[in-house]
Amino acid sequence: xxxxxxxxxxxxxxxxxxxxxxxxxxxxxxxxxxxxxxxxxxxxxxxxxxxxxxxxxxxxxxxxxxxxxxxxxxxxxxxxxxxxxxxxxxxxxxxxxxxxxxxxxxxxxxxxxxxxxxxxxxxxxxxxxxxxxxxxxxxxxxxxxxxxxxxxxxxxxxxxxxxxxxxxxxxxxxxxxxxxxxxxxxxxxxxxxxxxxxxxxxxxxxxxxxxxxxxxxxxxxxxxxxxxxxxxxxxxxxxxxxxxxxxxxxxxxxxxxxxxxxxxxxxxxxxxxxxxxxxxxxxxxxxxxxxxxxxxxxxxxxxxxxxxxxxxxxxxxxxxxxxxxxxxxxxxxxxxxxxxxxxxxxxxxxxxxxxxxxxxxxxxxxxxxxxxxxxxxxxxxxxxxxxxxxxxxxxxxxxxxxxxxxxxxxxxxxxxxxxxxxxxxxxxxxxxxxxxxxxxxxxxxxxxxxxxxxxxxxxxxxxxxxxxxxxxxxxxxxxxxxxxxxxxxxxxxxxxxxxxxxxxxxxxxxxxxxxxxxxxxxxxxxxxxxxxxxxxxxxxxxxxxxxxxxxxxxxxxxxxxxxxxxxxxxxxxxxxxxxxxxxxxxxxxxxxx
Length: 593
What we know:
Layout: H1 8-18, H2 21-25, H3 35-53, H4 57-63, E1 66-68, E2 71-73, H5 78-87, H6 106-140, H7 143-154, E3 158-163, E4 179-183, E5 186-197, E6 206-214, E7 225-231, E8 233-235, E9 241-244, E10 247-252, E11 263-268, E12 274-279, H8 285-321, H9 340-372, H10 377-412, H11 423-430, H12 440-453, H13 458-475, H14 482-505, H15 512-545, H16 551-567, H17 570-578
Parallel strand pairs: 3-6
Antiparallel strand pairs: 1-2, 4-5, 5-11, 5-12, 6-7, 7-12, 8-9, 10-11
Helix pairs in contact: 1-9, 1-15, 3-6, 4-6, 6-7, 6-8, 6-9, 8-9, 8-10, 8-11, 9-10, 9-15, 9-16, 10-11, 10-12, 10-13, 10-15, 12-15, 13-14, 14-15, 14-16, 14-17, 15-16, 15-17
């Protein structure tokens, strides 16, 4: 089975040509993120991903995780790989230097995260959750908690988790029942949480759980939820590991994919209550948790991209080696990559993978701009842009991962259905990414509700205006990009018309947002991705004209052309779907289903 090879050249192209790393280096704190430093970071990350993480991926899937003597047993080699990850400082790549981090842009973190996911998503999930926990603690916790916990988490000596879901409370967090009773300077936490990724393991010295729970005087609903930091091991007066806290893993979920990652059912307070510490203000836990969740949503979008890339590489290697059939003009039998239908599938995988990378990296860039922006109008505009892109990046990039990993199995034919080839693992692993950190439907409702209706279309209007300005640049390229120009024009017109139609119609139809949200998000994803693919083609042409007549740049243009001809037209079909409204969706009575 082929091992993963990080696509460093395409990653650097997206960072340098689609995002603007030079602009980021002009912002306070990002001065060291020069192209040569970024190139060195990516090169070093690729060594760990290619040579350490990747060989553990399929064996980890086959071994899985289990509980033995009350401890979670992870696949062989995972702990050693994690320790290498920690020793090399990767957890702190984009974290604050105040707590031992390197302060690199999230854009750079996005590229490195893609490598971890492509090479071994089960192992990559552990530091991903830690990063989100760090964000929440850094933004909302007291100085004492920050000083006590953050440096150890940034070093990856301690890992972190997010504890939201309960058996009766999935996406509806208003139903959370876990309790927190004040006791001096801490709280006693009781309750059960499910679906806790890396909730228990022995790879790190301590695990810092962020737990949603209710205070005794909490009002009903989401406004009554508070956030608590609950360590697996309590600390002594010097901040060192002390006695075990009153929490434990009850069982591990048996899952469709990510078998190398323990997904835990956690119990808090079986012997009187786990000690926890309030993060942020009482009853304001959801706001604190959304700091962690929004960061995680961008990272999950990257997971979609990483799985696309791994499935594409796997399918491409198989297509180059598998001999099947013959073709006119070729002597004897040929490898399947010679067949036009297989080429179609590979181009579809390639185009979706590259467009997903473009969208995810540009979203990471927008995240950096928003976090460095001031309180003026430019800062507000930057915040509106990342608020708009977050549900699109998370939702669209994870949905296309379903398509790409599905095609990857199809390229293998019957061999793809056999676990031994490894193609099925990517499809199984990818299935979760549209679900956790908020399903695609939740992302879509966030997009059409909070991100479009709340500001009466201001953020999406700003994006459409930028796309219109880009269209003039694309049209100026002449006949070289004629097909791209035509397809992008139609797609942009469809997006603008559909957005205005939605804003006009929604006051009269309470069922409209839920009925059209998913299709509108996918439509927007295709158009934004089409913009970035066309932008990549222009950049590639410029570099060729400057003397870089490289196959890589010519193939960037070819891939962008394929995307605009074969994938971008989906946006026009989605315009018709969205503008059909809610009537047929809601036409059958509930009792008639």
